[in-house]
Specification:
116 residues, mainly alpha, Arc Repressor Mutant, subunit A, 5 helices, single chain
Protein backbone atom coordinates (compact mmCIF):
# COMPACT_ATOMS: atom_id res chain seq x y z
CA UNK A 1 0.00 0.00 0.00
CA UNK A 2 2.76 2.44 0.93
CA UNK A 3 4.54 1.75 -2.36
CA UNK A 4 1.42 2.69 -4.32
CA UNK A 5 0.84 5.78 -2.21
CA UNK A 6 4.45 6.82 -2.84
CA UNK A 7 3.94 6.25 -6.55
CA UNK A 8 0.79 8.39 -6.62
CA UNK A 9 2.55 11.15 -4.68
CA UNK A 10 5.58 11.04 -6.99
CA UNK A 11 3.81 12.96 -9.71
CA UNK A 12 4.61 10.30 -12.29
CA UNK A 13 1.79 9.47 -14.71
CA UNK A 14 -0.82 7.10 -13.32
CA UNK A 15 -0.64 3.91 -15.34
CA UNK A 16 -3.38 1.32 -15.38
CA UNK A 17 -2.54 -2.22 -14.31
CA UNK A 18 -2.73 -3.24 -17.96
CA UNK A 19 -0.29 -0.51 -19.03
CA UNK A 20 2.12 -1.39 -16.22
CA UNK A 21 1.93 -5.10 -17.05
CA UNK A 22 2.63 -4.33 -20.71
CA UNK A 23 5.55 -2.08 -19.81
CA UNK A 24 7.06 -4.70 -17.48
CA UNK A 25 6.60 -7.47 -20.07
CA UNK A 26 8.54 -5.51 -22.66
CA UNK A 27 11.33 -4.52 -20.26
CA UNK A 28 11.68 -7.79 -18.35
CA UNK A 29 11.21 -10.46 -21.02
CA UNK A 30 13.36 -11.08 -24.08
CA UNK A 31 12.08 -9.63 -27.36
CA UNK A 32 11.38 -8.92 -30.03
CA UNK A 33 7.87 -8.03 -28.93
CA UNK A 34 4.90 -7.72 -31.25
CA UNK A 35 1.37 -6.54 -30.57
CA UNK A 36 0.09 -10.03 -31.34
CA UNK A 37 2.60 -11.69 -28.99
CA UNK A 38 1.95 -9.24 -26.17
CA UNK A 39 -1.80 -9.71 -26.56
CA UNK A 40 -1.35 -13.47 -26.26
CA UNK A 41 0.87 -13.17 -23.19
CA UNK A 42 -1.63 -10.91 -21.42
CA UNK A 43 -4.70 -12.76 -22.67
CA UNK A 44 -6.29 -9.67 -24.21
CA UNK A 45 -7.14 -8.53 -27.74
CA UNK A 46 -4.77 -6.69 -30.06
CA UNK A 47 -6.86 -3.48 -29.87
CA UNK A 48 -6.43 -3.50 -26.07
CA UNK A 49 -2.65 -3.66 -26.54
CA UNK A 50 -2.79 -0.95 -29.20
CA UNK A 51 -4.65 1.43 -26.86
CA UNK A 52 -2.17 0.79 -24.06
CA UNK A 53 0.72 1.28 -26.49
CA UNK A 54 -0.76 4.57 -27.64
CA UNK A 55 -0.68 5.89 -24.08
CA UNK A 56 2.77 4.45 -23.29
CA UNK A 57 4.08 5.78 -26.60
CA UNK A 58 2.74 9.27 -25.89
CA UNK A 59 4.52 9.17 -22.52
CA UNK A 60 7.71 8.05 -24.28
CA UNK A 61 7.93 4.77 -22.33
CA UNK A 62 7.69 2.48 -25.36
CA UNK A 63 7.93 2.97 -29.10
CA UNK A 64 6.87 1.12 -32.21
CA UNK A 65 9.57 0.09 -34.68
CA UNK A 66 8.82 -1.20 -38.16
CA UNK A 67 10.62 -4.45 -39.02
CA UNK A 68 13.05 -3.64 -41.85
CA UNK A 69 12.99 -7.26 -43.06
CA UNK A 70 9.20 -7.40 -43.28
CA UNK A 71 7.58 -3.96 -43.28
CA UNK A 72 4.24 -5.51 -42.27
CA UNK A 73 5.61 -6.33 -38.81
CA UNK A 74 5.82 -3.77 -36.05
CA UNK A 75 7.92 -4.38 -32.95
CA UNK A 76 7.45 -2.77 -29.55
CA UNK A 77 10.73 -1.36 -28.26
CA UNK A 78 12.08 0.05 -25.01
CA UNK A 79 13.08 3.69 -24.57
CA UNK A 80 15.45 5.46 -22.20
CA UNK A 81 12.49 7.39 -20.76
CA UNK A 82 10.69 4.12 -20.00
CA UNK A 83 13.83 2.70 -18.42
CA UNK A 84 14.14 5.78 -16.19
CA UNK A 85 10.47 5.49 -15.18
CA UNK A 86 10.91 1.86 -14.12
CA UNK A 87 14.14 2.65 -12.26
CA UNK A 88 12.32 5.38 -10.28
CA UNK A 89 9.47 2.95 -9.60
CA UNK A 90 11.98 0.34 -8.39
CA UNK A 91 13.65 2.89 -6.09
CA UNK A 92 10.23 3.76 -4.67
CA UNK A 93 9.61 0.08 -3.90
CA UNK A 94 13.03 -0.28 -2.26
CA UNK A 95 12.52 2.84 -0.14
CA UNK A 96 9.15 1.58 1.03
CA UNK A 97 10.63 -1.83 1.89
CA UNK A 98 13.44 -0.21 3.87
CA UNK A 99 10.99 2.07 5.66
CA UNK A 100 8.64 -0.83 6.34
CA UNK A 101 11.55 -2.90 7.70
CA UNK A 102 12.51 -0.11 10.09
CA UNK A 103 8.91 0.26 11.28
CA UNK A 104 8.65 -3.51 11.67
CA UNK A 105 11.85 -3.68 13.71
CA UNK A 106 10.71 -0.77 15.89
CA UNK A 107 7.34 -2.47 16.38
CA UNK A 108 9.10 -5.69 17.42
CA UNK A 109 11.32 -3.79 19.87
CA UNK A 110 8.22 -2.12 21.34
CA UNK A 111 6.53 -5.47 21.81
CA UNK A 112 9.64 -6.89 23.46
CA UNK A 113 9.91 -3.91 25.77
CA UNK A 114 6.25 -4.16 26.77
CA UNK A 115 6.46 -7.88 27.49
CA UNK A 116 10.10 -8.22 28.43
Amino acid sequence: MQTLIGYVRSGQPDLTNRQMALLLLVYLTPGPHTVRGLAQLLGVSKPVITRALNTLGTLGYLRRVRDEADRRNVFVAKTSIGQEFLERFERNIEQQQESSGRRGAARERGILLQHG
